[in-house]
Amino acid sequence: CYAVEQAHDSITLEQAANQIDSECKIAVVLGHEVFGVQQEVVDACDACIEIPQYGTKHSMNVSVTAGIVMYRLSLGFRN
Predict the structure, then answer these.
(1) How far apart are CA 7 and CA 50, in angstroms?
(2) Distance CA 11, CA 15 (A)
(3) What is the 3-state secondary structure (H, E, C) of the chain?
(4) pTM of the prediction?
């Protein structure tokens, strides 16, 4: 189970795609656009995935985030 959240120990989306075994079933948790994923949910997840961003923005629309994450993971693991 992976939360998409900027957190202290988060890994990049690319790192996640390279680390997750293609035979594993995974769940991706997306949070509220303003408040993110609740801390208790983050604590229950195996890791947090972060999409690297440049500039001054530190968040993006949840539907855009979902599309980016699902697209990258759909390319196959360990690419």
Answers:
(1) 8
(2) 6
(3) CEEECCCCCCEEHHHHHHHCCCCCCCCEEECECCCECCHHHHHHCCEEEECCCCCCCCCCCHHHHHHHHHHHHHCCCCC
(4) 0.83
Of the candidates 79, 27, 34, the one whose C-alpha atom is nearest the C-alpha of residue 49 is: 27
Task: Provide the Cα torsion 63, 10, 1, 70; round to 10°.
Answer: 30
pLDDT in tens, the chain (79 residues): 999 998 999 999 999 988 887 778 889 999 988 889 999 999 999 999 999 888 777 778 899 999 999 998 878 655 4
Residues pairing with 32 in the sheet: 36
In whole angstroms, give the CA distance from residue 63 to residue 31.
Answer: 11
